[in-house]
Specification:
Blueprint: E1 2-13, E2 38-52, E3 57-72, E4 77-80, E5 83-86, E6 90-101, E7 106-109, E8 114-117, E9 123-131, E10 142-154, E11 160-171, E12 180-181, E13 203-205, E14 207-216, H1 226-231, E15 234-245, E16 273-274, E17 280-290, E18 294-301, E19 313-319
Parallel strand pairs: 13-16
Antiparallel strand pairs: 1-2, 2-3, 3-6, 4-5, 6-9, 7-8, 9-10, 10-11, 11-14, 12-13, 14-15, 15-17, 17-18, 18-19
Length: about 325
């Protein structure tokens, strides 16, 4: 790959919801649990230059202008001289650089898209973002470092596991929309890279570390049961763990000059939180390869069960062709 891409977008977005749009899953994305009333209007102008080398190394340089305005149950407000003042919007201007290394990577190549074929080699991605105050109306100076590592681990006849780890640190005093809003999923589709029982905008961090593991038994248990072996069903299990926190300079509980975290418009109780010394944890077990298409998971949330309007259990479905 060697290309330049420029885009402009004006659209609504549920903060923290980064859905992996798979064509087979789109129907399930239409249905959501709980309140679906937190939105942001986003105006985004973005330019990227991507260059890939033959040894599966690629780099990306980018420019991003991003203007966010509140909508629905979200409002931007902060305390100034002991009075609550509304903030109409937040504007940031970013320069970014990303380095990706995927040793021995191969793809299924289509006319427009290509799909990576995972193997035993890890995939590393390091990203740096600099927010620049005063550049094209940017209001904040900050630095954002992020490192992610993906690895498929094979266990012979016991199957294999996909393990994804990620960590990030944001330097600077910022309003919460520019911090890390952790990926939540309030749909009934199972999302591999999201927390499937976390509410949208429930947790925010300026430093965090996470680990996701999806274990595919590859029929190790079901193949010992004649009927299940004939149906070619596959057993799966997953665990997702997230540690994080918000420094005092970015926490409205200790710093009045930053935006207040969102609250319930009726009761005034908090709906957005910073992670404390406990991690957020959820686990699941499921059955895959149903009709070579369907995966169904029973998901259990293990921590932060006292947060408002959370679900401790859930059934999630994923559509994907398995062979």
């Amino acid at each position: 790959m060697n290309y330049i891409k420029t885009s402009y977008q004006y659209d609504t977005k549920i903060p923290g919801q980064e859905l992996q749009f798979v064509q087979e899953d789109n129907f399930l994305l239409s249905f959501k649990r709980g309140d679906n009333d937190k939105f942001l209007y986003n105006r985004i102008f973005k330019t990227e230059y991507v260059r890939e080398f033959g040894k599966n190394i690629s780099y990306t340089f980018g420019f991003k202008y991003w203007k966010q305005s509140p909508a629905g149950a979200i409002s931007f407000d902060k305390v100034v001289n002991n009075e609550t003042v509304a903030v109409p919007d937040i504007t940031s201007t970013e320069l970014s650089a990303e380095l990706r290394w995927a040793p021995h990577e191969q793809f299924y190549q289509g006319k427009v898209y290509r799909i990576p074929i995972f193997n035993k080699y890890p995939i590393f991605k390091l990203r740096y973002i600099a927010g620049i105050k005063g550049l094209v109306d940017g209001q904040y100076n900050y630095h954002n470092l992020n490192l992610s590592i993906f690895k498929r681990v094979y266990f012979g006849q016991f199957g294999y596991a996909d393990i994804a780890t990620e960590g990030g640190y944001i330097f600077g005093k910022l309003p919460y929309p520019l911090l890390t809003i952790h990926r939540a999923n309030q749909t009934y589709a199972y999302q591999l890279n999201s927390f499937n029982l976390m509410n949208a905008l429930e947790f925010i961090s300026d430093h965090y570390a996470s680990a996701n593991m999806d274990y595919y038994f590859n029929g190790f248990i079901f193949n010992k049961i004649p009927l299940l072996k004939k149906l070619k069903l596959r057993e799966v299990a997953s665990a997702k763990i997230l540690y994080g926190g918000v420094r005092d300079e970015n926490n409205p509980a200790t710093q009045q000059s930053v935006l207040n975290f969102p609250k319930n418009g009726v009761t005034g109780s908090p709906t957005t939180f910073a992670l404390n010394s406990r991690p957020y944890v959820e686990v699941s077990v499921g059955v895959a390869n149903i009709f070579k298409l369907v995966r169904v998971d029973l998901v259990k949330r293990l921590t932060y069960l006292d947060n408002p309007e959370v679900s401790q259990w859930g059934i999630r479905t994923r559509f994907k062709f398995d062979f």
